[in-house]
Write a structure and sequence with these properties.
mainly alpha; 9 helices; 0% strand; globular; disordered C terminus
């Protein structure tokens, strides 16, 4: 079904990878356009797109403070805010008839997850040192280290699947729901409630990806004192998804 759905870009690019890349480029151009609009005429009293973007950055910073602390929230703000903005725009594109969400493709969500995966390990090694960082994988009990180390490795690798498949699966499901809806009724009379639900899901999936990015970063750089903080936000995100 997903291979035969019409999109405006497929008229020029055809189906398959070219169509997917076209939607990724479109998403990137929209993000660049929004950033340009927000910084075009900066003023002390923000208005228009500058006001919207400042509210978004403040919200992202506030989210990060609760998880990783103010110092590191500011440090990781560019990464998390950029990921969040790209994912949100990609999610929202699919709600517009004639377009397809890039995040409904595992080939897009997987690289996003890999960016987070490699970056938080890089930050953890950079702050704690290579030996101390991976020694933490062995747990506090030495005789359990041979068992704990592979379990921790599998746990971290599963985060790639968790981040990528959660986003891909939910957005793909939303796209399928919309496609079925459009086959039943014309797009111009699509009920408002389903569209509002899809918009909410676009917000929710973006939030979950962003909060888990902060959680994984917190677990990597604060491997001792913040160990318990990593589990709580991730569990909350899982419940929010359900």
């Amino acid at each position: 079904m997903g291979e035969t759905v019409y999109t405006f870009l497929s008229t020029f690019l055809g189906e398959g990878e070219a169509n997917m890349i076209g939607h990724v480029i479109l998403t990137a151009l929209i993000v660049i356009f929004l950033a340009r609009m927000a910084t075009k005429n900066l003023s002390v009293v923000p208005k228009g797109m500058q006001n919207v973007m400042e509210l978004y950055l403040q919200g992202t910073l506030s989210m990060g403070k609760d998880v990783v602390g103010e110092k590191y929230a500011r440090k990781y703000l560019p990464l998390v805010a950029t990921l969040g903005l790209f994912i949100f725009v990609a999610n929202m594109i699919g709600i517009i008839p004639g377009f397809e969400s890039p995040t409904a493709n595992i080939n897009i969500t997987l690289p996003l997850a890999l960016i987070v995966f490699f970056y938080y390990h890089y930050e953890g090694i950079k702050k704690n040192g290579f030996v101390h960082y991976f020694a933490h994988f062995m747990g506090p009990v030495k005789w359990l280290a041979p068992l704990m180390f592979p379990i921790e490795i599998i746990s971290h690798l599963s985060r790639i699947i968790s981040l990528s498949f959660r986003l891909f699966g939910n957005i793909k499901g939303d796209d399928l729901f919309l496609w079925v809806l459009l086959m039943l009724v014309p797009w111009f009379i699509v009920p408002v409630v389903p569209l509002a639900l899809l918009t909410f899901m676009a917000f929710l999936q973006t939030f979950i990806f962003m909060i888990l990015t902060f959680v994984y970063l917190a677990g990597a750089i604060h491997i001792d004192e913040h160990e318990h903080k990593e589990e709580i936000p991730e569990e909350m995100a899982e419940h929010a998804l359900v």
